[in-house]
Structures are given as structure tokens and as C-alpha cells.
Write a structure and sequence with these properties.
It contains 8 helices and 34 strands. It is mainly beta and about 475 residues long.
Length: about 475
């Protein structure tokens, strides 16, 4: 396999780069016996395609997996081994990151950190055990500011050992496209102005690759119970979802179960976040708008009633999903750390270094296109040589205070781990839930706590992917 050949040519002095030397060399095959792996391998092909995004007009040229946007929803049972061979038929190199899944570091899909990029016409074999049930997703981590909005993403579902009792399950991957009058994607990826502002926003919101609007319908029968798995696969857009006439039950965030509770205010979903809702057909009849309440508000879809009642009366509060295994962080003994976020078009980053080299701010802004810093440093996307923001001992309990000195929101995503938000602006959070991505508001301070269980070097970055490419990207090391 070409990925293996490329990997064998890499020579890096840093100890953490040893992951690159073994990532492709049979790790996927080691998850399952070779014969069983051959029968169980899932094939994913990244390529160029045509898809009818808008209802009227020409089809849109997009990039996707297995000929569609989003790619196929990959489904596994909790505890099952996943073996996935990724074929690259794109005009540029790529990888696949399994967002939210606690995988071995070599399988995390981060170029120059956990594996070499998959070159065009080449392939890479991923293999890992699906330890955690829940709603996850997959997408590239190579030039993600371009490849994700072009359409390279899909849902990854790990079914609980004891599934939540519902009548039906629906998966919505929500994203957006920036299309011109001919329904073609606007080729303005990687603009510095997007890197330093709110990111590149599309003008066409889509649900499962089709333009959103009143015609997008969630068909329900009276008193039917539907599990709706929501994935925000947008590269920059945050959603504020409102379900008119209904109070869905929230049963999980980022794949991690919570005590079921009714959604009584609009649901904020930052880039990369997932939420599982249980919607009961309690209205009985009629049509109800599902709105994105951000800015002036946009109608995304319609809850539409049809057919006979499934049961005489609503079911009431659903049971809680069996939680995944987590070690509760000990806040008393946890080591304390901080990250200061600065920069953007409305502020000036206090940069000390870029990719490990000291440079002045003017040079960095004009010649490198980097607008953001984490602890006064910036780096290009997946720079080959850099230092982790922090190094942790395995099983170390840690608290990181994130200090947002910018005027923008940042959905921060930590690879390989789940964490709890334990304080906001210095005030303790009474209900601590597990997440892998959290939205940090402008000028906000937020404390997250976790246990560094997963050995390796792990990305920690903003999931507004233009921000990530613009410098808001780093790693933590667990040794």
C-alpha cells in the first residue's frame, strides 16, 4: 500500500513521530485476524461526484465518499471491530478522522501527526474497536477547510448494547454549501479573510446533502416516537435549532448519554457537535417548522403529521441511554493548565512563534495568513515539527482553563478524549456532562476537566475549520 511506502521514507527525530512509522504498517489488520478482516472490511472511496443539492437547476460538483454527500452512515455495534479501507480518488491528498471516537492514536487520521497523508490513487487501512456507543462522524483532517465544505463527511453510528426503545430512527447530517447561480461551488476556499473572521459560510444549508427548506420533511404519525440523530458537519456554521410545537427529549450530547430532559429553548450546535433527540408525535396533526434561529432565522425543515396513531397516548419521558465508560476527573488533585486564545480580524494576536520559529506579527499576518494564537503561538495546518501545548502522564487528571480573548465563538474539539465543562467565567457548572466539542463564547473563560487516558499526540483545535487553518490548532501529548 502506498501509504506504507511513504511512511517508511519519513525520518523525524521527535519521539512522538514514531507513531508515523507504524501507523499504516498493518495496525488495521491487527485488529482482526486477516481472513476475518477481509470479509468484514468496509470500503470508503473519496472522489468527485455530481449531486442535486438545490431542487431546481443543474447538479452540483462536489467531493464525497462512495459517490454521495454525505457519505454512507457507517454503523457498528458497541464493542465491534471496525476495519475500513479508504481509497483516495481525489485530486489532492487526504485522510479520514473519526470524530469523537476514542481510537488508537495511529488510527486518528491526522496528517503529519498520526499518519502520512493518503496520496491520490492510494489507500489506507484503518482498524479500531468501537468502544463507545453513540453518534459520531467522519471527515478529512487534510486541508479540512476545503475538503469538508466540498462534501467529504458522513455519520458514524455505534449502536448501544441495549438500544433506546423507539419506533424509528432518523439521521440528519446538517451542513452548508456556497453555490453560485449555476449551482456550482464557489472556488474561494482558503481566503485569509475567512481564516481571521467567522469562517467561510455557505449560502445553502443542507440536510443529508439536499437543500434545506419547508420541503425537507420529518414525517411522523400521532404519538410515534422517533430518535433523531443530529450532526453538524458544517465547516464554520453554528446552528440554533427550534422545534415549533414540540419539546423533544435530549438524550445525548456528542454521543454521550445524559439524563433525558425536554428541550425548552433553541438547541445550539457548533461545528462537529452532535445531539440525539427523541421526538414524540404529540401534536397529533398539522405541520410545524424546524427553524435555525441564528441571525434572521431560516426554515430548515417541517415536522409533518400523517397516518394513523401509533398508540393511544404519548409514551412520556424516555429511559436514559446506558452511559459509556468514563473516569470522573478529580478536581482536587488535577493539574492546572491554561490556554489563551487571541487574534482575528477584530483583535491583534500576541504571537511569539510560528511552527516553532520566532517571527514578528506583521510578517506572520502578511506572509503566512495566520490570524489566531493559542498560548501566543500559531502553526500551519498539521505542521511537521512543533511542540505540544501540554504533555500529560497517562491517567493524569487535568483541568485546562480556556481564556477566549477574541470576539468570536470557537467550538473547541479535543481528539481521543471526552471532557467535562466544570466552570464558566469562574463559576462552577452544577451539571457536568461529557463532550468532545464545546462552544466557547466570545470573551469567555471556560474550565474543562478530563483524564488523559489515551496515549499519543492528540489534536486540540477550533472546529471552525478556517480558524484551525488560521492558527487555532495545537496538540496535547499523553505519555
Amino acid at each position: 500500500m502506498g501509504a506504507v511506502r511513504l511512511q517508511e521514507t519519513l525520518t523525524v527525530d521527535s519521539t512522538r513521530r514514531r507513531f508515523l512509522q507504524t501507523a499504516a504498517a498493518g495496525l488495521g489488520a491487527s485488529v482482526l485476524p486477516q481472513a476475518q478482516a477481509a470479509r468484514a472490511t468496509t470500503q470508503l472511496t473519496a472522489g468527485v461526484l455530481m449531486q442535486q443539492v438545490r431542487a431546481a437547476g443543474p447538479r452540483t460538483t462536489a467531493w464525497g465518499f462512495n459517490g454521495s454527500v454525505p457519505g454512507p452512515a457507517l454503523r457498528f455495534r458497541q464493542g465491534e471491530d471496525a476495519v475500513i479501507r479508504v481509497h483516495n480518488r481525489l485530486p489532492q491528498s487526504t485522510t479520514v478522522h473519526w470524530h469523537g471516537l476514542r481510537v488508537p492514536n495511529a488510527m486518528d487520521g491526522v496528517p503529519q501527526v498520526t499518519q502520512p497523508p493518503i496520496e491520490p490513487k492510494d489507500e489506507f487501512l484503518y482498524g479500531f474497536r468501537c468502544e463507545d456507543a453513540g453518534t459520531y462522524w467522519y471527515h478529512p483532517h487534510q486541508s479540512s477547510f476545503e475538503q469538508v465544505p466540498r462534501g467529504l463527511y458522513g455519520a458514524f453510528i455505534v449502536q448501544e448494547a441495549k438500544p433506546l426503545p423507539v419506533d424509528r430512527e432518523v439521521v440528519w447530517v446538517i451542513s452548508d454549501f456556497k453555490l453560485d447561480g449555476r449551482n456550482q461551488q464557489v472556488e474561494d476556499f482558503g481566503r485569509v479573510v475567512d481564516f481571521g473572521s467567522g469562517g467561510r459560510l455557505g449560502n445553502t444549508i443542507a440536510i443529508n446533502g439536499k437543500a434545506a427548506g419547508a420541503h425537507q420533511r420529518l414525517q411522523v404519525r400521532p404519538n410515534e416516537r422517533v430518535r433523531l440523530r443530529l450532526v453538524n458537519a458544517s465547516s464554520a456554521r453554528l446552528f440554533l435549532l427550534d422545534f415549533a410545537g414540540h419539546e423533544p427529549w435530549v438524550v445525548s450530547y456528542d454521543g454521550q448519554s445524559v439524563e433525558p430532559h425536554p428541550l425548552r429553548e433553541p438547541l445550539l450546535m457548533g461545528g462537529g457537535q452532535r445531539t440525539d433527540l427523541v421526538i414524540d408525535g404529540t401534536a397529533g396533526r398539522g405541520e410545524f417548522a424546524i427553524m435555525d434561529k441564528r441571525d434572521k432565522g431560516t426554515r430548515l425543515a417541517t415536522i409533518a403529521y400523517a397516518g394513523k396513531a401509533v398508540r393511544a397516548r404519548p409514551l412520556g419521558k424516555p429511559a436514559a441511554i446506558q452511559p459509556n465508560r468514563h473516569v470522573e476527573p478529580n478536581l482536587t488533585t488535577a493539574t492546572q493548565h491554561f490556554i489563551v486564545f487571541e487574534g482575528g480580524v477584530l483583535g491583534m494576536p500576541a504571537i511569539a512563534a510560528i511552527d516553532g520559529k520566532k517571527l514578528d506579527v506583521k510578517t506572520i499576518m502578511e506572509h503566512h495568513g495566520l490570524s489566531w494564537t493559542m498560548n501566543y503561538t500559531a502553526q500551519h495546518e498539521h505542521a511537521m515539527m512543533h511542540e505540544p501545548l501540554f504533555r500529560f502522564r497517562k491517567d493524569e487528571h487535568a483541568v485546562i482553563r480556556m481564556i477566549n480573548r477574541t470576539d468570536f465563538e470557537h467550538p473547541m474539539h479535543l481528539h481521543g478524549h471526552f471532557f467535562q465543562v466544570v466552570a464558566v467565567d469562574g463559576r462552577a457548572v452544577p451539571q457536568r456532562i461529557w463532550r468532545d466539542t464545546v462552544v466557547m463564547a466570545p470573551r469567555q473563560e471556560m474550565d474543562i476537566a478530563f483524564v488523559a487516558e489515551n496515549v499519543g499526540e492528540w489534536m486540540f483545535h477550533c472546529h471552525i475549520l478556517d480558524h484551525s487553518a488560521g492558527g487555532m490548532m495545537g496538540t496535547i501529548g499523553v505519555e
